[in-house]
Structures are given as C-alpha cells and as structure tokens.
Design goal:
Rossmann fold; homodimer; 13 helices; elongated; HTH_LacI (chains A, B); six-stranded parallel β-sheet; 434 Repressor (Amino-terminal Domain); alpha/beta; DNA-binding; transcription regulation (chains A, B); about 325 residues
Amino acid sequence: MATIKQVCELAGVSAATVSRVINGSDRVIEATRKKVQAAMDELGYQPNLAAQALASNRSNTIGMVISGLDGPFYGTMMAAVEAQLRELNRHLLIASGHGNAESEEEAIKYLSSRQVDGLILLTEGLSSEALLAISQSIPVFLINQQVPGLENRNVWLDNFGGAYRATQHLIEQGHRNIVCIGGPAFKQDANDRVAGFETAMRDAGLDVSGQPIFRVTFGVEGGRQAMNYFREQQLEYSAVVAGSDETAVGVYEWAEENGLVIPDDFSVIGFDNMNLSAYVRPKLSTVAFPIVEMAKASARMAFDVIYNKAHSEGVEFNTELVLRNSVKAL
Amino acid sequence: MATIKQVCELAGVSAATVSRVINGSDRVIEATRKKVQAAMDELGYQPNLAAQALASNRSNTIGMVISGLDGPFYGTMMAAVEAQLRELNRHLLIASGHGNAESEEEAIKYLSSRQVDGLILLTEGLSSEALLAISQSIPVFLINQQVPGLENRNVWLDNFGGAYRATQHLIEQGHRNIVCIGGPAFKQDANDRVAGFETAMRDAGLDVSGQPIFRVTFGVEGGRQAMNYFREQQLEYSAVVAGSDETAVGVYEWAEENGLVIPDDFSVIGFDNMNLSAYVRPKLSTVAFPIVEMAKASARMAFDVIYNKAHSEGVEFNTELVLRNSVKAL
DNA sequence: TTGTATGCGTTATCAG
DNA sequence: CTGATAACGCATACAA
C-alpha cells in the first residue's frame, strides 16, 4: 500500500500538498494538482482511512439502524443508501435492531462507539424524546418518522394521502360500508393511514362512527384478528382497507377459511406494494411508494448536512395507487 | 471522549499497560488489570477505532458483498452476519452488487480500498478464477459457492440433497412423470439441484432421457417459460419440481392462465421456502434451509481465521422438506 | 500557493 | 510484568 509519503516524493511536493489534492482543496495550483494526481495514479495510491479518520476526527462513515432486516423493503432501502453513500465516497455501517426500543438503543450505542459521523434511523421502537436526545450528541436522520424538532431531518411517506386515495378509490367503485384495519397506535405511519381513511370517508359523507376501524399489529395474524372482530361486531361492509399488504394477506386467509371469495364477497386494498401483492390471488390492489428514492434522499440529506454543513429540509414522498384485482366495482 | 492517556493517568500506569488490558493480553497481573479496568469504567472509556486501526494495521472490519439486497433472504443473511460480528466485537461493511460480475468486482474493490480485514461473499457473477485470485490478497469466505481451492472457506447448502428429497417426496406420492425446471447453468446451486432431481429419478428407476429438464433464469417468468416449453414438447407429467419458489410462482401463474388447478391437475414443489410460499394458494410445498445459521457460521469462520489464525473447514448445511398443499398423492 | 511541524490515539518494540 | 518511545498515515495550523 502506497502512502502519502511515497506520493509526495514521486511528485516532488510536500505531504501537505498531496493531502490538499486528496481533499479537493482549491488552494492548489492546477499544475501541481496534475503532478500529484499523476503520482497517485502511478502508485495506485489509496488514502489510509484509519489515518484520515484519526487525523481529521472523522470516520467518513454513517451508521444506519434498521429495525429488522428481514422486513419487506428494508433490504432494498439499505442497498440504496449504501449505493448513494458509496457514490459520495462515504461508508455505511449497519446495525440491525429487532423492532423494539431496547435493541435499537443498543444498535445506536454500538454505532456511536464506532464513532460514525451521523445516524440514519429506520426504527420503530424509539420514542420521540429518545430520538431528540440522541440528536443532541450526533446528527440524526429519520426515515418515515415525524419527530417534533427533527422535522427538517426527516424523509417520510405521505401515508395519510396514500390511505386517503385508497379509500377514495373504494368509494369511487361504489363502496359505502368500508372497514379499516389499522396498525398499532404507537406507530406514526399507522396512525396517518388510519387518519387518511377516516378523512376520505368523512369527505365523502360516509359515517365512521360505527367502529369500522380496528387496530392490530401489522402482519398476517393481525388481518385475521381484525376480520373476526368485525364479524363479532356484526358490521356490514363491502370493502376493507388494510393497513399493510401483510395484513391484507391475513384478510385473504380469513376469507378463505370462511368460504368467502375476494373480491366477489368483499373487496380489499392493501398498502406497501410488497412483492407478495402480485403473487397472491386475486392480485392485491395496493398503495406503492418510492423506496429507493426515499432511501437515496435520506442518504443525500445526511451527507449534505454532515459533510457540507448544509441546511436540510424534510421531504415528503408520494404514494401511488396500484390497481390490481382485489377490488370490485359495485 | 476519554483517551488512553486519561485512563493511564487515572490508573497510575503506562499507556502500554492500558493497551494490554484492552486487548486482553495475559502479560498483566490481575491487580493492575483491575485497577485499569476501574479507571476505564469510571471514564466510560472507548478505544478510538481509527487509532487502533492505524497502529495495528487492522480495521477489525469485515466486508460483505451481496449480489442484490432485495433478494428473498439476503437481508436476513446480512442481519445475521452483522449480529454475529457485533457480538465478536468486529464490524460489517456492506456493499451490494447487482448480480453481475462487474458490479460485484467493483464492490470488492470498494471494500478492499476500505481496507477490510476479510471478505464474505454472497455473489453470483464472479468466476471461480476471479474468486481464487482475490483470495490471494485478502481472506475470502464464501456462502453457497463451491470453488476449487477454497473448499475450506465455504459454507454451503446441500442443494443436491434438497432437490433429491423433494423429488423423492413426489415419487413417494405416486408420481412417475416428473418434470424439472432448473436455474441457469452457470449457477452452482442450480446445477446441484438439477443433479439432485436426476439422481432421485434414476434411483427410483425412472426415465430422465425424455427432456424433462428445462433451464431458465430464476424468477416468475422463468417458470412460465418452462411450462410453455413442456407443452410444446408434449411432455406428460403429473408433477413439477421448480428450481426456486419464485419459479414455482411462475408455474402457478401459468396454471391459472391455462385453466389448470394445482395440485389437482399437477403437483408442484419449490425450493427456498420464501415467505411467499405460505401466501400463495395452494400453499407451496418446498425445501427450506437454515439461513441464519449459515450466515452465522460464515461470520464465525471468518472471525476465527482472520483474527485467530484458526484453520477452517467447509461446512455443509442441510435442507428440510416443508410440506404444504401443492402436492397431491396419486 | 506551498512547506514545516505537530498531533491524532493506539500498538508494538525494546528495555528494564 | 511494566514503562518509554517510536511508529502508523494523514490533516491542519502556521509560517514562508
């Protein structure tokens, strides 16, 4: 491994100058820059990261904690963040949490001890207060998490709008009695989706006072539970908006178990556009969102504020309705 | 951030001694060790990684390249590797490839320039020769890739056995005319699965000379292609063994498009046990394997040989048949 | 615009 | 078993 010393000898300049061209300083004349660049190329020089980090007190590494890597789109998100960061010549250190505050806290502690320059968080367990506290000591960037005081560090999905449009679509198809399976109440995105449902209903002059909303944990089992609940309540409905595609699968299973057929007996619309939504029968109509773009935006934002002291602004991403075969027009 | 200097002042020893207790050297008497430990605890001391790396010429980081993070189980694998490494006090640097040799090569180059201490490779594009070449300059550990000369650095799945048992199961259920959709011929695991199929057939005295094997790229579309091919060949079959669950989904779709019902008209068995196999109807019988265990084993192996100069041995993992509803007894 | 000198926090060599 | 001390490779004031 060539060192800066060999480069400066070959180029006939000082180490400081080489360091300047490495870091793209503008205080170096074009001629010397070229000379140095040539020397670096000839030697195949690669800066030693540890030395850089030690001298500059910067690891050039951003940490990312993901609450559970086996989730539907977390892998994709991570890959996109990694790609973006690599392009910007920074690195990504991953720590996977397990969906609970404790393990996420531990992951953050781990990353901090690895002295990352900043944190990208795709977590579910941490409270707003905890997040805010962490951000005092290290730049924090959020994905899909609205935290008061960190609005400008967040990249989020218009969950409200997505659910609104999904519900609206059902209404346009003639449905009036619509039931909603919401995610857990401690999850921001779940709440926004439920709110989107309610608003769309009200805007259409439809009643939502009859308990048509049931909260469950996301996942297949939740969908089944909710459907049983609706039956116990003897609710009439011709369509259900599910808080997630997985929940929708639970609804599918419940329908199957009860001899009901979708969308003839009732319609279903999901949220997330996971792969499975195209595999399931009937193919699931659902709400899609730009995973990769969101991830890249987050990485970009982190880069800009951490390394360029840029001012950042929160950015909202929009959903898109993906119409398949789980909704019937009445 | 406390430094080693403050620790040694507080403990009344030299930096060298502190360093020794940090690294668990045995050449330090118990009394001083305790003294130092107490000082470290009191100060909340955390060694500076960059300084350690610079001085020791070791990053304590292992790089991992994954050919495509959005794949079915790659995220899970990565999370498991990360967890294992973290437990061992090492770090994971990720680089995602895109399933082709070029991007994987670039990912490796990237990780090397980040001076990782070793590489865990879950790739698909790189040739054996390329892999072998890379391993000359840096310790390489493989997941699911048999490379001559790197046998002892590999953790792999018994793809042959898995396909063998799947086929055998079909035969036990009374099937005689069985057709096989294989993955691409340049993929080791695909070949092993095909071989497992052939052997199981032969062992049962069944004929495989009539072109019952068709190779496609993995994925839904591949399954459809293969089924069309079988029809063109006017092959008779009562069951198909698919090279992957995704391929099996393609078979499902083809059946649906052609008004055939599984498993009444023909049976299907998959491979991988992805989530979708439980979501699809009928639920897919398939071949499962221990993703997390394989990942951990790989991380452990890398750790042992890189940091403890241990000798390693390749380890094979076994599959398990997961019986659901896509196979009918004849 | 460039060079000099110093320090970053550890590890490792060599004495003691 | 412990202590000095010289690297490790680079960044950055400061000087020129």
